[in-house]
Amino acid sequence: MSKVRNIAILLFNDVEVLDFCGPFEVFSVTGRRNGSNPFNVYTIAEHAQITARNNFQVLPSYTLENCPSPDILVIPGGGGHYSDGTPYGSRRETKNELLLEWIRDTALNCEHLLSVCSGALILASAGLTKNLQATTHHMSFDALREIDASLTVLEDKRVVDNGKIIFSAGISAGIDASFHLVNKLLGPQVALETAGYMEYDWTLDKH
């Protein structure tokens, strides 16, 4: 029997809804038609309840303290600065040392880390992106470079794969990155079958 991989999707206040719901859907429905169920997908957060963008209330499956050890960690984005300069969403989490330390510790035993949108800023703030190639939401290119000047930001790429760490561009691109990872782990037949079931326009060359 193939290994069932734990996929943890990180949540935080003001997270962009499609950033985490898109990958959640892709990984959750993969293999369901043939009963292989290769992924155990769950949400995690620092707190027992979070409020995503547009006041979307979410109860994470686990907190950082009690979540199962993930094989794959998905870090979504979403956020910016209020008119007074106060950061929210992913920008606020780049200063959350408790979360950054948890990500650093978790990354040691992860098979893959996948950032969606401005989740790349969180990964960079955790010090995990040195000398990598990356992408993020088009409005976060400069912010990502400011956090980690060693990064090569590929502004024209939707998905950037460094091996262990995979980056996707803004919001809906997280769905493409998720299919990319399904293909990488389980092969094109599984990825294309899942895309067909979801009626999502994904092909092997969609990067």
Could you characterize the architecture of this molecule?
The mean pLDDT is 96. The protein has 7 helices and 13 strands. It starts with a strand and ends in a 9-residue tail after the last helix. It has helices at 17-29, 90-93, 97-107, 119-125, 141-147, 173-186, 188-198, and strands at 5-11, 39-45, 50-52, 56-58, 62-63, 72-75, 79-81, 87-89, 112-115, 133-134, 152-153, 159-161, 165-168. 43% of the residues are buried. By secondary structure, the chain is α/β, with parallel strands linked by helices. Strand 12 and strand 13 form a beta hairpin. It has one domain: 3-Layer(aba) Sandwich (Rossmann fold), CATH 3.40.50.880. Helix 1 (17-29) packs parallel to helix 6 and helix 6 packs antiparallel against helix 7. The strands form 4 sheets. Strands 5-2-1-6-9-13-12 form a 7-stranded mixed β-sheet, sandwiched between helices.
